[in-house]
Design brief:
Elements (H helix, E strand, L loop, with lengths): L2 H10 L2 E4 L11 E9 L14 E10 L3 E2 L2 H4 L7 H13 L1 H4 L3 E2 L3 E10 L3 H11 L8 E5 L5 H27 L3 E3 L5 E3 L8 H15 L5 H11 L2 H13 L3
Parallel strand pairs: 2-7
Antiparallel strand pairs: 1-7, 2-3, 3-6, 4-5, 8-9
Helix pairs in contact: 1-3, 3-6, 7-8, 8-9
């Protein structure tokens, strides 16, 4: 079975047992508590050892939302090559959405892995029942395949970002002139003559001001310019930051 076939199978077998009751914040960081449930691979050979469910628990944290392109999102940290391929497959199947994905500077980190002597459905129900009232608003419980568990997590992330963007962030971005709608009503990124999204241009200007004011390191600005592939457009201004500091 090819890698793409494996990823497709992992995407198809992803199941969401509990979705967050809140969308991503449009003005501040959002931390999401996640549980990914999988059946240990050895049960395929020794089914009599079950039922058992492996529970991966962790957090995904997003910064405040920022309009991006798929190429920018590919630089998200903490995901395997297979998960990145999954994102490419998802984006190619939704060409309109592909140019409207939001990057929240997220990182995924597994805090713990444990095994429960329960079926996946039983483990999911118990985790949901044990969630505190406060935790329930930003918790997701899902299941996937053992060897490609983060592909399922990536699928959820893409859908969660898309829902947050559509329900909350798109209206705000339209008001700022970062997005427009075509004749079919589809949302499109508004760009400068150089092809840079206006939202990205404003973010870069914000970072220039922060670096000048000593509130941010030049390396952060350089990283942002590189991610958008526009360092050459801003090279003189960037180097002036060092000249003026002498």
């Amino acid at each position: 079975m090819s890698d793409q076939d494996k990823i497709k199978r992992a995407l198809e077998q992803t199941k969401i047992f509990k979705s967050p009751e809140e969308l991503l914040s449009s003005s501040e960081k959002t931390s999401l508590h996640y549980y990914v449930l999988t059946e240990p691979a050895y049960l395929e050979v020794y089914p009599e050892e079950g039922p058992e469910t492996r529970i991966r628990e962790g957090w995904i944290t997003w910064d405040r939302p920022k309009l991006i392109t798929p190429g920018y999102l590919m630089k998200a940290e903490g995901f395997s090559d297979e998960a990145r391929q999954a994102l490419e497959m998802i984006a190619s199947s939704k060409p309109d959405l592909a140019s409207l994905i939001y990057k929240m500077s997220f990182q995924q980190k597994v805090d713990s892995i444990r095994t429960a002597a329960k079926t996946i459905e039983e483990a999911a129900a118990q985790l949901d029942e044990e969630s505190s009232e406060e935790d329930r608003f930003l918790t997701v419980i899902l299941s996937g395949l053992e060897e490609l568990w983060d592909v399922s997590l990536m699928k959820f992330v893409e859908e969660y970002i898309a829902e947050s963007a559509s329900e909350s962030h798109f209206p705000d971005m339209e008001e700022r002139g970062y997005l427009t709608r075509n004749q079919s009503g589809q949302v499109q990124v508004t760009r400068t003559l150089e092809g840079l999204p206006i939202a990205a241009r404003d973010e870069i200007e914000r970072l220039f001001d922060k670096v000048k004011g000593g509130e941010a390191e030049p390396s952060i600005l350089k990283k942002e310019l590189d991610r958008w592939g526009v360092y050459q457009l801003y090279e003189d201004r960037f180097l002036d930051l060092f000249r003026s500091s002498k």
